[in-house]
Amino acid sequence: MKLIKFILLLGCFLSLENAFAKQALPIQYANHQCELNNAQPALTELMDVPQNSTAHLLLEDPQQAMLYRAWLTDTARKTLDVQYFIFTLDNIGTIALEHLVRAADNGVKVRLLIDDIMLNVKSDSLKTLQSHPNISIKVFNPMLKTGKNIVQQLLGATLAFTKFNKRMHNKTFIQDGQVAITGGRNIADEYFGYDKDFNFIDRDILVIGETANDISQSFEHYWQARESIAVDKLIGAKNYNPEDFESLYHYSCDPANFAPSVRNRLANMPKQFEQDKANLIYASSQFYYDPPSKNDTSITLSGGSHTLDILSQHFAKAEKEVIIHTPYLITTKEIRKLIKTTVARGVEVKILTNSMLANDNHEAFSGYQRNRKSLLETGAQIFEFKPDPQIKNQILLDERWMQLDKPPVFGLHSKTMVIDRKHSFIGTYNFDPRSAHLNTECFVHLDSVEFAQQLMPHMLAPLAPENAWQVTNDFNPDQYADFKTRVKVLLRRWVPKSIL
Questions:
Q1: Is-above-0.70 flag for pTM?
Q2: CATH fold of the domain at 286-499
């Protein structure tokens, strides 16, 4: 029975967040020279955030989100703490890694914490990175990949199936403990509009000041957790040799990999930030996160979570309106009851999720499909994202899409909730059983009408007919999917919803 569970779980993870299908990019040597512009002023040197205050900047544009991460990396003075569910060494991931290594070369202490299930880096590469005197790498809950052979993988998954299921889904990027980025984006091409086949519409938030310090403390909590294991303890260590990093430097310096136009935008980030200051919102905010040991004493695939409790409490207090963006929507009976009760009080509930055509996770869609009718019965308005939404033209203004014979598919990946146009929640939480019970999650909650007013156009535009279909009892867009996709979803209906 446990072996069957393992096979089911492995099938689920094969497409979860479109990660396993991506292979690590082979780093090619090219004879180019370039250096980081670490002489730029740091973000905190261009503004003065009052004590006990927090400034927030919404990051909708994927290239903007990428460039802010790069700028923070290049101008870090002391530390960079990087925590992700997925860090893929495709083009974006390789360039991001090169910038982190260069920062380490300049004396910055870099700590990288990645979940094991989606870690797609060879052991030799991990050893090389870990050998750098200023780089430390830890792997969260290493039960499947890092340092494990196939026998150990099977034993771990079958004998400790529940523990195997508990993953770190948090996404935080922190500079000097003072500035942080969190939200839906992982580190891979598709989260920043660079994949030629499939890209995500996503959302991050840049946080400066007091709440950024809270995010930094959360990273420390995870870094010190017993679930986070140093790479050298898993696969051994090697001696540091600067020449081991040469191919990485040259890859990033090759204009074919890092376009000069993008490099110029990065060099101009201080000027860009001066413009973006007009959009900064100073507001009260809190950062919530699940503990690393979430449900570690539970022998079942349930148990709830701190993040679920906070979201549910605010949901239950809604007076007029709740709008949710979630790529994966698999509701439990308890959540449907909460929605139904909320709607019965006169609150309008609108939820945007991915259609079958825009979904990268067939297992997750099969779970949603099984609950769709029951969800509609709660009175919530359900919208499914189109694979070719017109909104992409407002976000991805890049000549590359005009050069492709076939445009890429677009899917929703933002995880956001706005209540009564006052309370905004931006983070990693999906409305599914994994986020509720298994994965650790995090989000920023802003109690600010001003910020909600800035966010609302981005919440409402994707619901428009040119971007999404509204689902009713008489209509859903499954019929527009090709036969192969519908069969794939159908075959996933035997995967238990509790692990989706």
A1: yes
A2: Endonuclease; Chain A (3.30.870)
